[in-house]
Design goal:
Blueprint lengths: L6 H5 L4 E5 L5 H9 L4 E2 L24 E3 L2 E3 L7 H10 L9 E5 L2 H4 L3 H8 L4 E5 L3 H14 L7 H7 L12 H9 L3
Parallel strand pairs: 1-5, 1-6, 2-5
Antiparallel strand pairs: 3-4
């Protein structure tokens, strides 16, 4: 994909991507880096582009909407040109001397994002924010409580709605990134 881009498009793509689990510090890192004059990260820390996982229904189920025509499904490969144009708008205000980055928590656990990032951004620096899984899960639960999205107590959430708090726990995510990036 990278070879097909113009030099202007290449200059507006991120040189680093921050990924990680929810409640692992990605928002804090976004805010810290956003204060540096030589770094450009688009939007607020709560706005993530989800570009590389835009059609990953496991990571973004709310991006798939039922309409009168049926299901509206996003298709990264079919609409790549349209989505790339949209993605580049996130970085339109970056200055020539700034490092460009983005952050998105869905990239770490997405099965689609690793190969797409490697293909479009072969030299990108990846920063993954990780945390003790038990502490992260408990923190995520309280985030759901604070935002009025928890419908059970903590133990019942783990039992009946583990996807809301547990995230990635099976150990399959990092090996996918290792394979794509060629690291160990």
């Amino acid at each position: 994909m990278y070879d097909k881009l113009s030099s202007e498009e290449r200059s507006k793509l991120p040189s680093f991507i921050i990924g990680g689990g929810m409640k692992c510090g990605t928002t804090t890192l976004h805010r810290i880096l956003n204060q540096h004059k030589n770094v450009f990260i688009p939007g607020s820390a709560e706005e993530e582009p989800h570009f590389f996982s835009i059609d990953d229904i496991e990571q973004n189920p709310d991006f798939f909407l039922k309409s009168q025509r049926g299901w509206d499904c996003l298709d990264f490969d079919k609409n790549f040109g349209k989505y790339l144009k949209w993605y580049l708008t996130f970085f339109g205000y970056a200055q020539e001397n700034q490092l460009i980055g983005e952050d998105c928590v869905s990239y770490l656990s997405s099965k689609k994002a690793p190969e797409r990032i490697a293909s479009l951004l072969p030299d990108v620096n990846l920063i993954f924010m990780l945390r003790d899984p038990v502490e992260r899960t408990y923190s995520q639960y309280w985030h759901w409580v604070k935002t009025n999205r928890a419908i059970y107590d903590f133990e019942n959430t783990l039992q009946f709605s583990p996807g809301h708090t547990c995230g990635f726990t099976d150990g399959t995510i990092l090996p996918v990134w290792d394979f794509v990036t060629g690291t160990e």
